[in-house]
Amino acid sequence: MSKEIGITSKKNEDFSEWYTQVVLKAHLADYAPVKGLIVLRPYGYSIWESLKLSLDQKLKATGHENGFLPVLIPESLLSKESDHFAGFTPEVFWVTHSGETEIGDRLALRPTSEALAYSMYSKWIKSWRDLPVKINFWNTALRAEIKATKPFLRTSEFLWQEGHTVHTTREEAEKEVIEILEMYKKTVEEELAIPVITGRKSDKEKFVGAVYTTTMESIMPDGKALQMGTSHFLGQNFSKPFDVKFLDKQNVETFAWQTSWGVSWRLIGALIMIHGDDKGLVLPPRVAPIQTVIVPIYYSPSDMKLVLDKATEIKEILAKHNLRVHIDSRDEVTPGYKFHDWEMKGVPLRIEIGPKDIAKGKMVLVRRDSLKKSDLPFVDTENGIINMLNDIQQTLFENAKSLLREKTKHVTDFEIFKTEMEKGAFLHSPWCGKQECEETIKETTGADIRVIPFDAKNSDSKCIICNNASTTTAIFARSY
């Protein structure tokens, strides 16, 4: 990667290198000494905190509580649900020794928490009065990613939240699955300004151990799909092996119905790819660590106090509206350096103030999304800044929707399918529902079924592979 200041790769020429430079040079994260791991820097962690706060408030408002689980899971416990365990085995990190002493039952570094959570739930749940149980865990998961690593997208340890709920009825559990998916969609679209498509995974692509998996998917500028979050209906597939049961109102012992769901810091990766440009990050105001940066411009001591006092005044006005504002008062760098620095870090709005601006009773505003400049009278500070930030948020979402439309195509011919997939796209195509055809597409093109949209309708078209009657229209894509 280039050590030069600023982003040296073009987004549309070397997407992978551009992405890596943005992550490192915008101070989001850095590589850790262990391959596959990254260190999240304060600027990147602040974005995660914004997402965490938003989701946490929504979850608590709907009756969910936060808990904590340890990172070590005994192998004997993981193997209770054999299909689930087998699905994670290739990615599991194992602890085999305590100091120099070999331990008996190997300990897995948590790849996911179903086994651990449900072994505890079986102790806590005895009666229908104990239900529902709706616990969310903000933690990390560890899954061995050694070869194709990429910051935020594929790392061996990642930040996420995983919810695990228990219910008395199937209907209540299935309602939970959809409500969580809608909560995720609202957060991603309204906070990150990224449109998503929601629906179900195919049986081949569903979460191991689930009855079915619902998902939200988005398309990146390079034409690859990114799974943005999932919500799983587990049925009784875990309650039976882990003995999660309760006495119902008729005093009959019944196995409970369960769900699990989660999103990870992969959302930050999507944010970078969708909105970033050749200058670096472009952050939606609602998740930006700094929403507005004020750059005071002065060239003499006599001007400095005048300009800094006005900058402080503007900051205090905006802070009353809970806006995150920073005054860049560094003297060791030029205003031009500051402009490029904050553009690379994606701050949504820059305010420039100099003595001449103060004399004219106005400030200069520079939008990060379009880099357009405009003047704003000081008397219009509150409404002007707030309205512009709202407009930037909406514009980024509209631009992302345009990308989704541009990268989405309806294809019924397999030769055209192969050609379009090489370009990178979401391809809506008829599918018969058979796994053999799904696997043929994967082997031939590298694409899999990302999502079967909830509103997908069967058409008169034949399956794109076998030419038998289709049962639905699925969205295929290559993915990260």
- Helix % is 25-40%
Q: Which geometry do the CA atoms define?
A: globular
Could you tell me the CATH topology label of the largest domain.
BirA Bifunctional Protein, domain 2
Number of domains: 3
Gyration radius (Cα, Å) is: 25 Å
Q: What structural category do the secondary elements indicate?
A: alpha+beta
Number of strands: 23
Beta percentage is 25-35%
Largest sheet: 11 strands, mixed
Number of discrete helical segments: 13
Distance separating the two termini: 21 Å
Parts with pLDDT < 50 across at least 5 consecutive residues: none
CATH architecture heading of the largest domain: 2-Layer Sandwich
What tags apply to this protein structure?
480 residues, alpha+beta, BirA Bifunctional Protein, domain 2, 3 domains, eleven-stranded mixed β-sheet, five-stranded mixed β-sheet, 13 helices, 35% helix, proline-tRNA ligase activity, ProRS_core_arch_euk, Pro-tRNA_ligase_II_C, cytoplasm, Pro-tRNA-ligase_IIa_arc-type
